[in-house]
Specification:
With 308 residues, the protein is of the alpha/beta class. The protein has helices at 41-53, 72-81, 96-106, 120-127, 132-145, 164-174, 190-193, 201-210, 242-246, 273-277, 282-299; strands at 11-15, 58-62, 86-91, 110-114, 150-156, 178-183, 213-216, 223-226, 232-236, 250-253, 258-260, 269-271. It has a 12-stranded mixed sheet, with helices on one face. Bound molecules: S-adenosylmethionine and iron/sulfur cluster (SF4).
Length: 308
């Protein structure tokens, strides 16, 4: 399905929980508030089934910390059984060492692990937890079991900015395939943390110079740089960036049952909780959810647009 701004809808981002075992000072919580209701595995799979009918073929699981959901492995298995081509997850990696193999067996295709530091000290300053070594173990397990490509997310801010180039080195040594250098978004706690924002301009200029190839990804038109080692560095700069929004192919399912059309917008949402909780047959629920998707696609609009 294409929205009225010509953007295809291809990707469903599902928040599985708001609970987290870390306290990152900038956490945007996927732009969600309130979690009086937590969608069940059945709710999630039903919405995913309907999304699939709209041509959506890739799912990203997120949170909170998705590995804290006890039914995570079953959710992944259910998504693959629905026929999703690409099922991936973003995690803080704390529980990954023991989960990686189970997730791989359930069909998880690939993984993003957030690692915002190259040392125990900075890691703790950012996440509030002394877990750097443990997350590194998790990353190694993901590589070992073949959850590839393994990508690392690094949200750049004043506490870790000086570590970016060492982070690239560390990633190369670990053997990960790709890293994402992400601009801090002013959403959730990110609003307060925005004073520590870095626009990534200088960092990107330097990376471009040392790279051997530049590519532009279809999703968000994100620039990617291939380094001589083969490591891919993707630069994620959404803030006040109309080009990024023009390439947005994503819709979000919030943990409390809303179709959220944009990370930044709290108004552009369709509440589907009544449908999910309603005493309807599954066929009727599917029909109603389909209509909700149609409305969500109709109201979807880029948050940052060029002014004419
Ligand atoms: N707990 C998991 C994790 O940290 O990877 C998944 C949820 S987290 C909200 C999803 C991604 O958003 C992570 O890579 C995290 O670093 C990133 N993130 C969180 N707050 C952010 C912010 N204010 N700006 C940019 N990225 C942010
Ligand atoms: Fe937890 Fe992820 Fe938010 Fe950090 S960014 S507090 S790990 S949900």
């Amino acid at each position: 399905m294409i929205d009225r701004f010509g953007r295809p809808l291809e990707d469903l981002r599902i928040t599985l929980t708001h609970v987290c075992n870390f306290e990152c000072f900038f956490c945007h919580m996927e732009g969600e508030e309130g979690d009086n209701y937590i969608l069940s595995k059945e709710d999630i799979l039903l919405v995913a089934k309907v999304a699939k009918n709209f041509g959506i073929n890739s799912v990203k699981l997120t949170g909170g910390e998705p590995t804290l959901r006890r039914d995570l492995v079953e959710i992944v298995r259910g998504l693959k059984q629905l026929g999703y081509r690409d099922v991936s997850m973003t995690t803080n990696g704390f529980l990954l060492k023991d989960l990686a193999y189970k997730l791989k067996l359930a069909g998880l295709d690939r993984i993003n692990v957030s690692l915002h530091a190259i040392s125990r000290e900075t890691f703790k300053k950012i996440t509030g937890v002394d877990a750097f070594d443990r997350v590194i173990e998790g990353i190694k397990s993901a590589i070992d079991v073949g959850l590839v490509p393994v990508k690392l997310n690094f949200v750049v801010n004043r506490r870790n900015r000086e570590e970016v180039f060492k982070f690239i080195e560390l990633s190369q040594n670990l053997g990960v395939n790709e890293i994402h250098l992400i601009e801090l978004h002013p959403v959730g706690l990110g609003k307060l943390a925005f004073k520590e924002h870095d626009d990534l301009r200088e960092i990107e200029e330097y990376i471009e110079k040392i790279s051997i190839k530049k590519q532009i990804r279809k999703k968000h038109f994100r620039p990617r740089y291939v380094l001589p080692s083969g490591l891919i560095v993707e630069v994620v700069k959404p803030y006040a960036n109309p080009i990024f929004c023009a390439g947005c192919n994503r819709i979000r399912l919030s943990v409390d049952g809303k179709l959220k059309t944009c990370l930044y917008r709290e108004d552009n949402v369709i509440d589907i909780l009544d449908i999910l909780k309603g005493e309807y047959s599954e066929d009727v629920k599917e029909e109603l959810l389909g209509r909700a998707f149609m409305i969500a696609i109709a109201i979807r609009e880029p948050n940052f647009k060029y002014k004419i």
